[in-house]
Amino acid sequence: MSDITDSRFVREMREITSNMYRQGWDERNGGNISMMLDREEVSQFLDPDKIIRTIDTGFDAAPLAGKYFIVTGTGKYFKNVDRDPENNLGVLRIADDGKSAGLLWGYSDGGRPTSEFPAHMMSHISRLSVNPDNRVIMHSHPTYTLSMNFVHAADEREFTRSLWRMCTECMVVFPDGIGVLPWMLCGTNEIGEATAKKMLEYRLVVWWMHGIYGCGATMDEAFGLIETVEKAAQLYMLTAGLPRVNEISDDQLKEIAAGFGLEYKKGFLD
Hints:
Layout: H1 8-23, E1 32-37, H2 39-43, E2 53-56, E3 68-72, H3 85-88, E4 89-94, E5 100-106, H4 117-130, E6 136-140, H5 143-149, H6 156-164, H7 168-173, E7 179-181, H8 189-199, E8 204-207, E9 211-216, H9 219-239, H10 250-260
Parallel strand pairs: 7-8
Antiparallel strand pairs: 1-3, 1-6, 2-5, 3-4, 4-5, 6-9, 8-9
């Protein structure tokens, strides 16, 4: 078998975690990523049925039974993933009963998947029901998006509108808007369930005064969603408190939607 560290999925995790760390989005062990894998691809590098050890999923993940995922580890620093992927990442297969996951590779120091593993798997279930091509769930702490949480109303419609107005591309990239959850304790099934419910409507969910969740069919898509929100939030914060001489109007946002054939979130424009 080929060396798994040469696989597409390990290389993508090494590259994206390094990039997110450099962006300042994932300090210390902040942030986590999970990506669903095909059995055929896993089989090129691992015996897909050889379980090293079993890890509780923390909830009923039966809708994902038999699915494979590569997931960042709990307590692991993104800055260390590229240097030591086998310790900081793990490849898992969800058991048939959904109550456990079998570790096939990784977490070499005896570690476990991220404490947000249930939240990730719940969001995968939601997104797969909406988009069967979804593969990635990504969580990070982007600086300006977080800063904006302290000066802006925690309202999905108004938060989305403020970001849409920051740059013409914003409505093009996330016409479905941004879901917002009020502050909740992280690492719990409650926040996972609330996020998964939002993920039925949105590809982006802000955990107020904590961070953001994004999803996509590819790593680039999930990263690009968060990256675009963060750029818009940076523009918002750089202009906050200054007199607004110009802004993108609702009519112009509708023109963008018409020009690009977008189905935008209903009720988010006057």
